[in-house]
Amino acid sequence: MDAETRSIQVEGAADLALVERVLDALDGLWITAPEVPGEDQSLFRLAIAEISTNVVTHSEGHVTMSVSARVTPGTLHALIQDTAAPVTIELAAAAMPDAEAESGRGLALARASVDVLEHHPAPSGNVWVLRRSFTPQQ
């Protein structure tokens, strides 16, 4: 890792404990990247949390997940890979549900929190790509 790129990687069984480990690792990443504004940190963290939690919630059987995130000058990047059954998802159709709905906000929140949110079904699971640009703070 060079001075311009900082990263984390967390992997294991796709469960809520792994999601917590990912969020803890992100908190550590922000310490090494003080130039990332707090709002950008929070929104990127929210997107990763929503996608990771969706993998845990909607997967059946023994599923593993790998989450990597990195900071490069002006951009936050994340890659989430899982071994769940590959699915087709229409991200463009993800919208906020009615205020009374108890679920269904995850993809819409993630989409609104990053500049790029892509999903790719793969032979061995699913791949999520997230990116958010930021203006470094002094």
List keywords for this structure.
138 residues; Heat Shock Protein 90; 5 strands; globular
Instruction: Give the count of structural domains.
Output: 1
Helix-strand pattern, N to C?
A: EHHEEHEE
Number of helices: 3
CATH architecture annotation: 2-Layer Sandwich
C-alpha geometry: globular
Which whole number gives the mean pLDDT? 88
- Give the CATH superfamily: Histidine kinase-like ATPase, C-terminal domain
CATH class: Alpha Beta
Order of strands in the sheet with the most strands? 1-2-3-5-4
Cα Rg: 15 Å
Q: What ranges have pLDDT less than 50 throughout 5 or more consecutive residues?
A: none
> How many DSSP E strands?
5
SS-based class: alpha+beta
Give the amount of beta strand, in percent: 25-35%
Helical fraction: 25-40%
Walk me through what this model shows:
This protein is an alpha+beta fold and 138 residues long. The protein has one domain (6-133): Heat Shock Protein 90 (2-Layer Sandwich), CATH 3.30.565.10. Helix content is 33%, strand content 30%. The chain has a 5-stranded antiparallel beta sheet with strand order 1-2-3-5-4, covered by helices on one side. A hairpin with a 2-residue loop joins strand 4 (116-122) and strand 5. The longest helix is centred in the middle third of the chain and has 21 residues, at 38-58. The chain is globular. The mean pLDDT is 88.
